[in-house]
Structures are given as C-alpha cells and as structure tokens.
Design goal:
By secondary structure, this protein is an alpha+beta fold. The chain is built from 13 helices and 26 strands. It folds into 3 domains: 162 residues, no CATH class; 349 residues, Rossmann fold, CATH 3.40.50.200; 101 residues, Alpha-Beta Plaits (2-Layer Sandwich). Helix 8 packs parallel to helix 10 and helix 9 crosses helix 10.
C-alpha cells in the first residue's frame, strides 16, 4: 500500500512511506550506526527508534529494510512515513489504541487481536485496550487501517511520533546580567546598548520579589518538558529534582546532542539561580524537574505527564507543540493533560502552561487550546504585540519576550548557535556582542511561557492552597491591558494579548489576599439545595425542537436535576432546558443550557461551563433530535 488514510487524534492522515528514511532499534547502542548496515543517523530518537538513511542501491526501500531486519544486531526495523504535503518524519511506535464497540465481549476482542497477532499491553476498561504488534503482525499502520474497517472496532489509533515545534525565535538569537533582564524590570534601556525600551514594559517580577520579601520557596517544583537540558550549567545544576528522560526511560538525561538545545534557555527563564553571576529566573528558589523528550506519541504524552504528577510537579511548562492540523492532539492526549491539570498536586491540579506558537497565525498551538492549560503569547520591550506570536480566542495572557529587543537566557554547552546572521558572536547575540559563553539572546513564546511559569511559582510560594484553576483566574484578572483598547472585546479579551500582559506583582498580591481572606459562611439554603430539597421557583413552557443547547448530564434522580439547574442558573445566568424521557424502562432527565439559535453561541457557553470545572464533559446538542 503506497498510500494509506489513517485516523490519528482529530485528523485523518494521508500517509506515504518514506523512500529515504527507516527506523531501527539496535540490540546494543554502542558503536557507530554505520556498523549496523545503515548510512547515516538522522535522529537519535523518535518513537523509540533511530531514524536513519540506508546506503544507496537499486533495491526498493522495502527490500533494503528487510535486509536490515535480518541482521542479528537489529532488534526491530520499521518504515518511516510522511503526511501528504509534509516532509516531517512520522514513525509508528508499535502500540495501537483500540476502542471496541460497547457490546463486544473479551472473547470477541481476543479474536480481533489474534487475527493480527497483537499482544495485549493493558486493558483500560471493558471496551478500551492498548495492544502492540509482534514479529508476526503486519506493520502497525496497516494493522490500524485494517482494524478501522472491522465492525466490532469503533476506533483504532496507531501511536505515532513526530517532531513537534519548539517555540523559540532563532534569528534573535554575575547575576551580573540582571541589569540586562528587562523582562523582569524594564527601566527604559539595555545596560550595554544604546537602545531605547519602553519603561514599565515588563512582567513586574522584581516588584513581586519585594512584595514577597523573598525570591520564592524551594518547595515549589517547576517541571519543564523539553529537549536539550544542560544539567551542568551553573544556573540550574544545584536545582535539579527528580529528572526523567523519556527516550531512555531513566533519570539519566541525555545531553550533548547538537540537534537539541532548547530546554536549557527555557528552564533558565523560569528558575535560573540567584547565585551571584549570570542571569536570574523569575522563581530562582524553585526546584527544577527536567523531563526530557517532547513527543507526539500518545504513550509518551501519558508518560511525561505521569512523571510530572507522580513526582510532585506543581507547575508544568511546555514551550512546544504544533499548528499543523494533522498533528492536533486528539481526545486521548487532551484527557491526559486535563487529568494532570485537575488531579495533580493532590487534587489542586498542576498549573500547566503551553506556548501559543511563533507562526504569526490567527490561531494558536493546538496543545494550548485545551481549556485546562494557560496559553501564553509574547509581548515586546515596547509593550506591543510580538509580530510572530500567534493570535486566537483561546489565548490567555502574554509575557515579555523578543520582537523588539531579545532577553538573555542560559546556553547549553553544546549549543552551536545560528548562522542566520553570520558567524562569530552573531550566532548567539543579536548585536554580535558577547555577554559570556554560557548565555545567549533568546525569545519567542518559548521564552514568555516559562516566564509565566516562574510567576506562577511565586504565587504558589505565598499561597500553596491555590488550585490550578485559581492560578489561571488570578493571572487573567491581574493582567495589564496593553495595546489599544479597541484590541479588547466586551469581556476584556484580545486575540493578540489574551487578557493582557502578565503582572507578577499584582498576581502575587492577589494570591496573598486570597490566603488571608476569611471565606464567608455558605448560605443556609446551600445544604438543602445539595440534596435537591427546598423551595424552587419554576417557569415551565414548551420549547420548540430547534436550535442548539449545551447538555451537561443525564440524571435519574429528580433531586439531582434541581441541584444542577440551580447551580447552572446561579453561575451562568442562562435558561435551563430539561428533556424527560425513558431509558431501559426508567425515567431519565437530560439537563441542558439553552436554547441558542446559533451553534457558535452555544459553543461559547459550553467553553465557559467546561472552564468552570464543574461539568467538564458538557457537549453541544442539536434540539431537532427531540422533535
């Protein structure tokens, strides 16, 4: 099959076999890849494989791969694929996520697995299993393709891995450098350059430190998920806490690959130590949990967030993602991220941040659209929108980064810099003037995101009881409106700036206020409402079966209908619809918010309900079904 259509996440991918690359898993990692019968190693790790080129020959890629597979020093070999219209390598990890139809039993499911010689890896519920191919299986792309046509299978998704985008801006390329850190406090100039900045166009981090009376607390842990961590760098080497490398599945972080340097500067913006030289991060006392190995793979996504949550991460900073619709995270990955945002920190939720991306698009990184994460864009040293920073209705906030004048961040010792502006110090410094061999100019939403992550750490330092939802709420409500008033809608949101530029001082002040505030006693009626008892006012009228609504649940107990209706009306001030029906001989009640004549209006309400955290599985429904 030269071309296959396969469902992956939210997309249907048209895949072509690469005629240039294959993936191999050597039995031993020592020695040159040339000794393995291949020509060149392109990527040292993608989905658990090395991506390599094969020696030129008159054989087809299938014949060459078969030859390599027969070698005793090769454990597994696989084809590499490309999505139609893209040259980005895509590789199947070997696992397949299979949702069976509800009425199939385990014996029937086993017949399906045996048909393709699949090995059961884990059963997640009675209808959902994870399986992997064996030596007797067709390749996982073909298996998933075949499974998707079987009546007993509702969905079969092969676990795929590809390169995700890192959101730095390459062309712009002690605590003695604190005076250069205009993003923390902007006094209107750069220390060693005759270049005017806009005074006050900063994140107010020094003001936040002064308000706290300290630089934060050591018991706050920031996990940075990325690639290319230099753990020997003086700004992070004393702060490392429970590191994990997805590629070798150990606490030993792979270092030194010149293809990966991004994690070092990102981490430094969040938490570089106040050690007397170099730069200082926004939360210099926080501990640093490096999780190395960004991945599109479902399994790897589960693993990276599981590691962060189980090892005590308070904040998770992600300066990577995609704006390619083919690789938008599907429901499985979104569920993983949302679970961490809700269940982490012993139920208070991990604070998760994603970069909006640097494509100058009118939509943001698909990973950042998850309503349970904080989507971060970039502003400049002039308090303007950074022209590369993606715009969109899901954008929450912006933070200072480059676009006018870059910031300074840590540099990995193997970082070769960029040659876009020539050699020498221009590889690392926008003006060609070095500020030390361990640092470089940096920017993009890759920089603004860990800056906000550090600010979140300051908030949790003073008020560790804040939930992830409350942290996001505070950041939004305390942000400074920059740009033109016309950039913001009636709700105070801008597609360019989100709810404004982050203000660390105001955010910390609000975190402190909430800690000190005495919660008012709940209304006396609340206990009775929770049980569905009490006196309620009704206005009942027949609703035409047209338009849209947001369904929040199906209830068997009428008392629960009263509870849900009261809560929804109180919080969202919207009409409530109830459909009374029969299910398996029992009366059930579908509770909905609406009606709306426009689908978009209903969807706006759905987002608000989901963001509120009570009814996260709310979905749109067409009222015509009740005709």
């Amino acid at each position: 099959m030269a071309k296959l259509k396969i469902k992956s996440g939210k997309a249907e991918l048209v895949l072509h076999k690469s005629d240039k690359y294959v993936g191999i898993k050597p039995l031993h990692t020592r020695g040159s890849v040339r000794s393995l019968g291949v020509q060149q190693e392109v990527l040292s790790h993608l989905g658990g494989f090395k991506v390599v080129t094969l020696p030129e020959s008159f054989q087809s890629v299938d014949e060459q791969l078969d030859r390599v597979r027969q070698r005793r020093d090769i454990d597994v070999g696989t084809h590499v694929y490309h999505v139609e219209g893209s040259d980005k390598p895509l590789i199947p990890t070997g696992e397949i996520y299979i949702h069976f139809e509800e009425k199939t039993n385990e014996e029937e499911q086993k017949i399906v697995l045996d048909e393709y010689s699949l090995e059961l890896v884990e059963r997640r519920n009675e209808d959902f299993v994870v399986a992997k191919v064996t030596k007797h299986s067709p390749n996982p792309i073909k298996v998933a393709y075949f499974l998707q046509s079987i009546s007993m299978v509702r969905r079969a998704e092969p676990d795929l891995d590809t390169l995700l985008d890192e959101y730095n801006v390459a062309e712009n390329i002690s605590d003695d450098l604190l005076s250069h850190s205009w993003h923390l406090q902007n006094n209107g100039k750069v220390a060693d350059v005759n270049y005017p900045l806009r005074r006050g166009a900063d994140a107010k981090v020094l003001d936040a430190w002064n308000r706290l009376g300290n630089l934060g607390k050591r018991d706050v842990v920031i996990a940075v998920i990325d690639n290319g961590f230099d753990l020997t760098h003086p700004d992070v080497n004393q702060k490392v806490y429970k590191p994990y490398d997805l590629w070798n599945q150990s606490s030993s972080i792979i270092q030194g690959d010149p293809n990966f340097t991004h994690g070092t500067p990102c981490a430094s913006v969040a938490l570089a130590a106040a050690n007397g030289s170099g730069i200082v991060g926004a939360a210099p006392m926080s501990r640093f949990m490096p999780i190395s190995g960004t991945s599109f793979s479902i399994r790897a996504t589960e693993e990276m967030f599981k590691q962060a949550v189980q090892n005590g991460a308070d904040i998770i900073s992600c300066s990577w993602g995609t704006t390619d619709a083919n690789f938008a995270p599907g429901v499985l990955k979104e569920a993983v991220i949302s679970k961490a945002a809700k269940d982490g920190r012993n139920g208070k939720g991990c604070v998760i941040l994603y970069a909006a991306g640097n494509d100058d698009f009118d939509y943001i990184n698909y990973y950042a659209t998850n309503p349970d994460v904080i989507a971060v864009g970039a502003s400049t040293s002039q308090d303007e929108h950074a022209n590369y920073s993606n715009r969109g209705r899901e954008l929450d906030i912006v933070a200072p980064s480059n676009g006018d004048w870059p910031i300074i961040a840590a540099r990995a010792n193997w970082d070769q810099g960029t040659t876009m502006r020539g050699g020498g110090d221009f590889r690392y410094w926008a003006d060609g003037r070095s500020r030390g061999s361990k640092y470089k100019h940096f920017g993009g939403t890759s920089s603004s995101t860990p800056l906000v992550a550090g600010i979140c750490a300051l908030m949790l330092s003073t008020n560790p009881d804040l939930t992830a939802k409350e942290v996001r709420e505070i950041l939004i409500n305390t942000a400074d409106k920059i740009g033109s008033p016309s950039d913001y809608d009636s709700k105070g949101h801008s597609v360019k700036f989100g709810y404004g530029r982050v203000n660390a001082d105001k955010a910390v002040a609000e975190a402190m206020r909430r800690k000190d505030a005495v919660a008012p006693p709940p209304p006396l009626v609340e206990e009775r409402i929770q049980s569905g008892k009490g006196l309620f006012k009704f206005k009942v009228e027949r609703q035409p079966s047209s338009g849209y609504a947001v369904q929040i649940g199906v209830f068997a107990q009428y008392g629960n209908v009263l509870v849900a209706a009261e809560q929804l009306q109180r919080e969202f001030n919207q009409p409530i619809l109830v459909n009374i029906n029969e299910l398996n001989g029992k009366t059930v009640y579908k509770v909905m918010v609406g009606p709306y004549s426009l689908r978009s209006s209903a969807n706006d309400t759905r987002r608000r309900i989901v963001a509120a955290g009570k009814y996260t599985s709310a979905f749109l429904t067409n009222l015509e079904q009740f005709a």
